[in-house]
Amino acid sequence: MINFYSENDFSLGEEEIYKSWLCRVISSEEKRLGEISYIFCDDEYLLDINQRFLNHDTYTDIISFDDSLGNLLNGDIYISTERVLENAKEYNEDFATELKRVLVHGVLHYCGYKDKTEEDAALMREKEIEKIELFHVEQS
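^ that's the sequence the OP posted. Answer follows.
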C-alpha cells in the first residue's frame, strides 16, 4: 500500500498513476510492496525532523525512514515540496520531473541503493533516470 499525506498545502493529484508507477519501480527491482507513506511538507517541517532524528542542521529535499524487512519495502518518506521546487529551478528541471526523482529516490534507498560516495551517487542518479522513464510506460 502506498499512502500520500500532506503537512502543507501541496496536493499530488493523480495519486493512482503515481501509485501504479511506484509499484512498477518496486517490481522492477524484484522487491515487494509492504506499506510506504509519503508525507509532503515544507522546509521547516523537514528541518525539524532532520535536527531531531538525524542530528543534521541542514535543509534537504527528502528524508526516508526505512522499515523494510528483506524484500518487503516499508517506510515513511518525507519530502519538502519547497526544496523540490528550488532544486527544479537550480537544475533547470520542471517541478513534476524533479518530484518524480525525489519520490523514486526514497524507494531506491529502500531497495538498497546508497548515495554517500560519488560512485554510489552516480549509480543512484542512473537508477532515478531509468525509473522515471517507467512513469509513462503502460502496464500490460
